[in-house]
Structures are given as C-alpha cells and as structure tokens.
Here is the input.
Amino acid sequence: MAVATRLRPREGANALSEGGTVGREASELESEQAGGRFDPAEFSDELAAAPSNHDLGTSLWFENDHVRVFEVRLAPGERGPFHVHDRTYFWSVVEPGRGLQRFPDGTFVVRDYVLGETRYLVHSPEDSLVHDLENVGPSRLRFVTVELKR
Here is the structure.
C-alpha cells in the first residue's frame, strides 16, 4: 500500500470491524463511533484499481507459500489507498490511534484502535472487502497485518 497524504481530519471514532477481538472487551473498543458518507468519485481511479491492489500495508515484511506479513505505518494525515482483502487475514495494533476507513458504497467509519487490539477476518474472492485507511489522529497509527494464503 503506497501512502498518499491527505490532510482532512474527521471527528469521532468507530469500531465497525468484523471478526474476533483479543485482549480487550468489545464494549471498550466500540465505545466511540461515528460514520458518514463521502463522494466515491473523489477516489474513482483508486477504486477502479482496488480489485487488483493486494498491497495490504505500507511495507511487506515477509512472504512465503503460506502467509504475507505487512506493516501498516501511517503518520497523522497519511492514508493508504483503496485495496482488496480476498483472503482470510488478521491484524494487530502495535501503535494505537484513530483511523478512518472508506468503502466503495460511499460510506466511511472512524474509530479508535487500541494497543494490542487484534481482529481476525474471513474473506475470499467471492466475499471480498475493499477499503482504504487514513490516519485522522494526532499520533502515528501502526498495525501488523498477516494474510493467510492457504
């Protein structure tokens, strides 16, 4: 995921992520939430390329026949472009912060990510997820994301 700088912070936080939660109570993680709508035409080129963009982070740390391990590292105001998740994966927060995710249907969610929060998400080519991620908080936001290839 290449990083594109976009300095349009939004207010609020949201925890509309699917899958399991490890290390914290769900109510603690989902205490603040906000969402809304945006114009997908602003991102038309990225959205058109998203189904073939499998770069799930800002750097690929490791890959073999079984997994791909990415780091997602976003400074305040930075965003990663739209990309696709079409395999099962999980992520863990290693530096907490606030992120905004946009989806192709024109909706977005904003939420706080807490240290150690981990989510496991099941996706396939038939049930994929396309989104971007923007850091709308005051500090660096960092995850480790592991995609399972088999």
The two ends are 22 Å apart (CA to CA). Residues 98 and 112 are 4 Å apart (CA to CA). The first strand starts at residue 4 and ends at 5. Residues 17-148 form a domain with the Jelly Rolls fold (CATH 2.60.120.10).
